[in-house]
Design goal:
Layout (H helix, E strand, L loop, with lengths): L24 H11 L8 E6 L6 H14 L5 E6 L10 H11 L11 H17 L4 E8 L2 H4 L9 E6 L9 E4 L5 H15 L5 H4 L1 H10 L4 H13 L5 H9 L15 H9 L4 H10 L6 E3 H8 L3 H13 L4 E2 L6 E3 L2 H17 L1 H26 L16 H21 L4 H16 L3 H18 L2 H17 L3 H18 L2 H17 L3 H18 L2 H17 L3 H18 L2 H17 L3 H18 L2 H17 L3 H18 L2 H17 L3 H18 L2 H17 L3 H18 L2 H17 L3 H18 L2 H17 L3 H18 L2 H17 L4 H18 L2 H12 L5
Helix pairs in contact: 1-2, 3-4, 6-8, 6-9, 8-10, 12-14, 12-15, 13-14, 13-16, 15-16, 16-17, 16-18, 17-18, 18-19, 19-20, 20-21, 20-22, 21-22, 22-23, 22-24, 23-24, 24-25, 24-26, 25-26, 26-27, 26-28, 27-28, 28-29, 28-30, 29-30, 30-31, 30-32, 31-32, 32-33, 32-34, 33-34, 34-35, 34-36, 35-36, 36-37, ...
Length: 876
């Protein structure tokens, strides 16, 4: 067939790119790779698909310009197929436009589709023989049939844009999604700058710009409309536009600039759907969460999953829904499409009673689905011996379901506030959220459940709701609020005569009191809980109360009794086959044995706890056991292993997003790094712990981190900073009424003051520490304070007191079996004796005792130093 004319050297149907084109670098690079003549041979056909307003056409323009700039094509020709208009462009009309652009006169264009297709391909072949290459941009196609006649046989390239995937073309698929947040804000900024170069609203209020971009769903068309409205009102703050778009019910109304109307664009999409597809789209608007599973969609529609899945896939092809690439049974809508679907559902309900009744039934079915599955999944988190639902094969499957549905369930609770649904889901979700350490979510659902019980007058569940809320608040270290919640629960349980409930409330009250370091009251609360659990014949409850009693006794420094309590808890858990309870009891036993300086037994206990926590999949428990192992290994002077244990705890807490656990792990890691003399790293670890404790509002944790910081700063000889850190620790401990914390802080403060040569103040600080340690019955703390007092007295040249204090320290530390500290105390006593001119043999004996103690502690380096000092004692 004759070629009627040569192609012009530049086809100028390609419009210029808008200045604000941004955020599509990756997509542009991928399409250009396909078009690169060096990447392959033959015709290149690509298809860019995406939801309406996502910027497909603009990207196609950018591809055309970039390809021309690279010299890959003689020209670029664009044809708009108007595939989603009421009357799409037929392929024969598209071919006519392209033939004209290729230089064919109107009178030479044949009338039929087949003839035009043949002429079109012959024209392109003629150009190919001349070494010319053309890129055809077929914009806005709705079907493969519209595009197939436009495909060249070879050499040239076609890029199609469509809301559909158009699988029949055999094209390379490129899916275009919304912009990344930064690119969306940049588009908004650039659009406003085009209208007015002096517009600084985005730069001056970046938070509002971020929020506005999010409300626009990062969708280019929505962002362009919002920018146009802002440009039309240059005095309008971004925050005002944000407020206008915040209400989902009116958001689409706020995205209409008079020329472009996002709602109209979305409305037009529905005209291309079948009745069943459009109905499903509207029904999906009833779902409040971010995504939906195939089973939930089946429940929503009342149809079997195998019948609803093809309709969901059709909505995906129409780009009104997206299928999750990792979880193929899950589907989600773009935020603005979800708003549109909700609007469509409301409109249908307002228009007719029949749809309203049908939609209400659909809501009920969906709610029942979530309530039933949540309850079934929750049964796998309860204590051993309780019945579990067969709806899930086990804990792992229940966890996976909760993980997938968590955001949907939270959305349901929020949208059904003060209803039975909020109450039921609030009770069912709690154990899972605690397991996953989603603590803010936990407080939210517990608060919603309580509010629902109050609104419904549900006195039967009200006490339990208060108890659950208290537990959630306690996890966030909001102990005073937790105490009030548990007290409210106790009062209600007492009113109804519920012995089991009272036992639980007393047990929880004790835990909240421990968080407030009110250990004596906590002990009494746990003892009361134990008595009530015994009355109720609840072995699991007794085990929990004994375990908690052990922790309270540890706080009271009554370690022997604490050991017995934890051992009793362990025995009861073993009787009932409660693996999780055994793990917790072993963990607490390890901590108590560590306090008793029985480190080898403590190590075995913590390792057993770790093994059991791993068996049950309890990540939080594993982190706690690793942290405790770190402390015990530190006591065994196996500091490198202790560091690894603390790092393992930290890694697990970071995996689960447990901020408070991370804080504790960093704090322990700081202590271990200090023992390893890696003081700069220790400082960083303690500072990180402090920052995290501040984030979680844990005043007690902050005090501990400040105290550890003070110790590290002292080792770095930064004594003034060490003083300030220890003073802060003291102030915080006094705020919380933590007597033991105050004693430790006074001790650290005294050491820092000694480093500053302020011995009188140091003496007073160590004396205050000694008094408080005596109040709490902490013999080890007293021994350390005596040692520090001896150093301060030496600085004050108070010979008799210095020697007496040193001797007291040595005697008490030997009794405690802390050989590392004993070696240190003997060394300080040797220095004191030497300073006051004691007999050389006495000084030498003290150094030798120091070396012996260090050897028993396994610290060969310190022992060698003390032995060298003994050998070099003048006059011996």
């Amino acid at each position: 067939m004759q070629a009627y004319a040569a192609v012009p050297t530049a086809l100028n149907s390609l419009p210029g790119l808008p200045q604000e084109f941004t955020g599509r670098e990756d997509e542009l690079a991928k399409i250009l790779f396909m078009l690169d003549p060096r990447s392959g041979s033959g015709a290149a056909v690509g298809s860019v698909a995406g939801l309406p307003g996502v910027g497909k056409t603009t990207l196609a323009h950018a591809v055309g310009h970039a390809a021309l700039d690279k010299g890959w094509f003689t020209g670029v020709q664009m044809v708009n197929l108007r595939g989603y208009n009421p009357t799409p462009v037929p392929p024969e009309d598209a071919l006519e436009a392209l033939l004209r652009a290729l230089g064919v006169a109107a009178e030479h264009i044949p009338p039929t589709l087949d003839e035009r297709e043949g002429l079109y391909r012959s024209q392109l072949d003629a150009l190919a023989r001349e070494g010319q290459r053309v890129l055809i941009l077929a914009d806005n196609a709705s079907t493969s049939d519209q595009v197939r006649p436009l495909l060249p046989a070879r050499h040239h390239a076609v890029l199609v844009t469509s809301r559909h995937a158009l699988p029949g073309l055999g094209a390379r698929q490129f899916n275009l999604h919304s912009l990344q947040p930064d690119a969306a804000v940049d588009l908004l900024h650039q659009r406003l700058k085009v209208a007015d170069p002096d517009d600084r609203r985005v730069a001056d209020d970046p938070a509002a710009a971020d929020e506005l971009a999010a409300l626009c769903g990062y969708l280019p068309l929505a962002l362009q409309i919002a920018a146009a409205l802002l440009a039309d009102d240059p005095d309008q703050p971004l925050s005002e536009r944000v407020r206008m778009l915040t209400d989902a019910g009116t958001r689409l109304r706020g995205l209409d600039d008079g020329e472009r109307n996002l709602r109209a664009v979305f409305d037009e999409c529905l005209t291309r759907l079948s009745h069943q597809e459009a109905d499903l789209y509207r029904l999906l608007g009833l779902h409040p969460g971010p995504d939906i599973s195939t089973l939930a969609a089946a429940a929503l529609t009342g149809r079997p999953a195998d019948k609803i899945a093809p309709l969901l896939r059709q909505l995906v092809r129409a780009r009104l829904l997206t299928q999750n690439s990792q979880a193929r049974d899950r589907w989600f809508m773009h935020d603005l499409l979800r708003v549109h679907a909700q609007e469509q559902a409301r409109t249908s309900m307002d228009r007719d009673r029949v749809p309203r009744r049908r939609y209400e039934q659909a809501r009920t079915r969906l709610t029942d689905y979530y309530v039933r599955h949540s309850h079934a999944a929750d049964t796998h988190f309860r204590r051993p011996g309780e019945a579990v639902s067969t709806l899930f094969a086990g804990l792992e499957q229940a966890l996976a379901w909760f993980d997938a549905e968590r955001e949907n369930l939270l959305a349901f609770i929020h949208t059904h506030a003060r209803t039975r649904t909020a109450s039921t889901l609030g009770f069912s979700l709690g154990r899972y959220l605690g397991w996953r350490r989603r603590l803010q979510d936990l407080v939210t659902v517990r608060a919603h459940a309580l509010e629902a019980c109050q609104a419904l007058g549900d006195t039967l569940n009200l006490a339990g709701a208060w108890n659950n809320l208290g537990t959630a608040l306690r996890e966030l270290k909001r102990h005073a609020e937790a105490l009030d919640a548990h007290q409210a629960a106790l009062d209600l349980f007492q009113q109804t005569g519920d012995t089991q409930g009272q036992a639980s409330a007393w047990n929880n009250l004790g835990t909240a009191l421990r968080g407030l370091t009110r250990y004596a009251e906590a002990y009494d609360a746990h003892q009361t809980a134990l008595d009530l659990f015994q009355q109720a014949g609840d072995t699991h409850g007794r085990a929990s109360a004994w375990n908690n009693l052990g922790t309270a006794l540890r706080g009271l420094k009554r370690y022997a009794e604490a050991y017995d309590a934890c051992q009793t808890a362990l025995d009861l858990c073993q009787q009932t086959g409660d693996t999780r309870g055994q793990a917790s009891a072993w963990n607490n036993l390890g901590t108590v044995l560590g306090e008793l300086k029985r480190y080898a037994e403590a190590y075995d206990a913590c390792q057993t706890a770790l093994d059991l926590f791993q068996q049950t999949g309890d990540t939080r428990g594993q982190a706690s056991a690793w942290n405790n192992l770190g402390s015990v290994l530190g006591g065994l002077k196996r500091h490198a292993e202790a560091r690894d244990a603390c790092q393992a705890a930290l890694d697990l807490c970071q995996q689960t997003g447990d901020t408070h656990g991370q804080a504790s792990a960093w704090n322990s890691l700081g202590t271990v790094l200090g023992e390893l003399k890696r003081y700069a790293e220790a400082y960083d670890a303690c500072q990180t712990a402090l920052d995290l404790f501040q984030q979680t509002g844990d005043t007690h944790g902050q005090a501990s981190a400040w105290n550890n910081l003070g110790t590290v700063l002292g080792e770095l000889k930064r004594h003034a900073e060490a003083r300030d850190a220890s003073q802060t620790a003291l102030d915080l401990s006094q705020q919380t009424g933590d007597t033991h914390g105050q004693a430790s802080a006074w001790n650290s403060l005294g050491t820092a003051l000694g480093g500053l040569k302020r011995y009188a103040e140091a003496y007073d600080a160590h004396q205050a520490a000694l008094d408080l340690f005596q109040q709490t019955g902490d013999t080890h703390g007293q021994a350390v304070s005596w040692n520090n007092l001896g150093v301060a007295c030496r600085g004050l040249e108070r010979e008799a007191e210095a020697i007496s204090a040193g001797e007291n320290a040595v005697a008490m530390l030997i009794q405690e079996g802390d050989w590392a500290r004993t070696g240190e105390a003997w060394a300080e006593l040797a220095a004191t004796l030497n300073a006051f001119g004691a007999e050389p043999s006495q000084v030498q004996e003290a150094w030798e005792q120091s070396a012996t103690a260090y050897l028993r502690a396994g610290d060969d380096e310190a022992a060698a130093t003390s032995r060298a000092n003994a050998e070099n004692t003048p006059g011996t």
